[in-house]
Amino acid sequence: MIRVLSEGKVTEPGYLNLWARLNRHNVRLDVNDRGMTPDALVRRAKQHMKRNLRSRPSEREFDEIWCVFDVDQHANLAQAIDDARQSEINIAISNPCFELWLVLHREEQTAHVDRHDIQQRSDELQLTANKHVLPAAEPILVDGVENAKQRARALDRWHAGNGSPRRENPSTDVWRLVDRLRAGLRGSTPRQPGPRG
């Protein structure tokens, strides 16, 4: 099972549960912890990990744990990222927000973008409404996931090529978690972020 702690209360769980439903024989997704700041999410993830590791292997609640959050204006973001890395907690971060990942399913977004503008664009593309993933958008999000992944990775290469910091606006590495949900934990191990992870 994959346990996910999400900063977002609506959009992120709605999208991630779509993948859990599609791969229900291989993935159980727990998105009960949500609506916290990144540093609070990482602290909670560490608590879950400690409890999980104390259990016998056959009784463990999850195989992987992830924190999903936005860059926003969080004062302790760098500390949360560093703490997650040191604690072997997987993270998926979007800048400016999760809706960027959704928009990348339909189109490129290479220019710096405000969170409200990308949320509006997600609504305009009829992927979301009031932060809820629309049921009619689910086929688009499933069919477009490889395009979104390639666009997200191209943004990383673009930032690296021009010397801008990793996770600069716009960027998202939600594709890493989605790859895990799509794979259904079929015996593979999670890819941990590199040194700039």
Overview of this structure, please?
Helix 2 (38-54) packs parallel to helix 3. The chain has a five-stranded mixed β-sheet with strand order 2-1-3-4-7, with helices on both faces. A two-stranded antiparallel ribbon has the order 5-6. The chain is of the alpha/beta class and 197 residues long. Helix content is 45%, strand content 13%. It is built from eight helices and seven strands, in the order E-H-E-H-E-H-E-H-H-E-E-H-H-E-H. It has helices spanning 11-22, 38-54, 77-86, 99-103, 115-124, 138-143, 145-162, 174-183; strands spanning 2-6, 29-30, 64-70, 90-95, 128-129, 132-133, 171-172. The longest helix is centred in the C-terminal third of the chain and has 18 residues, at 145-162. It is globular and about 45 Å long.
Q: Which term fits the overall shape?
A: globular
Q: Would you count the extended β strands for me? A: 7
User: Ends: how far apart?
Assistant: 23 Å
Number of helices: 8
Largest sheet composition: 5 strands, mixed
Instruction: Please estimate the helix content.
Output: 40-55%
> Low-confidence spans: pLDDT under 50, at least 5 residues?
185-197
| Strand portion | 5-15%
Q: Can you write the helix and strand succession as a string?
A: EHEHEHEHHEEHHEH
Rounded Rg: 16 Å
Global structural class: alpha/beta
Strand order of the largest sheet: 2-1-3-4-7
The average pLDDT score comes to: 89
